[in-house]
Design a protein that fits this description.
about 50% strand; mainly beta; single chain; about 120 residues
């Protein structure tokens, strides 16, 4: 079992930045960030393989950075140049997958989820 606890959400203006954190109760190799805006489907923002490869969704490439503090089992999502389309509930998700097939996992293939943290960007 893994507990994931997100924090760091809030309200910012267009062009602002936020850093989200997701603290895991233990090491887990395959981790991802998702977001869900009101009335829209859940979208994968970024995913990290056990070997450090990171893939980003097209809508956040060049603006968001996914990092991991392995010593503390904390995931970070640094979000820069935010715009109102980034407004959503953000979730971290994880799975005990030590293969590179980790990078192919979609939302229905993650075992563990955090409770979410709200990000609101105003124009």
């Amino acid at each position: 079992q893994v507990q994931l606890v997100e924090s760091g959400g809030g309200s910012v203006q267009t062009g602002g930045s936020l850093r989200l954190s997701c603290e895991a109760s233990r090491f887990i190799p395959c981790v991802s960030w998702f977001r869900e805006a009101l009335g829209k489907e859940r979208e994968q923002v970024a995913i990290r393989s056990p070997y450090g490869q990171i893939n980003y969704g097209d809508s956040v490439k060049g603006r968001f950075t996914f990092s991991v503090d392995s010593a503390k089992n904390i995931l970070y999502l640094q979000m820069n140049n935010l715009n109102p389309e980034d407004t959503a509930m953000y979730y971290c998700a994880a799975a005990d997958d030590y293969s590179n097939f980790c990078l192919t996992r979609g939302q229905f293939e993650f075992t563990y989820w955090g409770q979410g943290t709200q990000v609101t960007v105003s124009s």
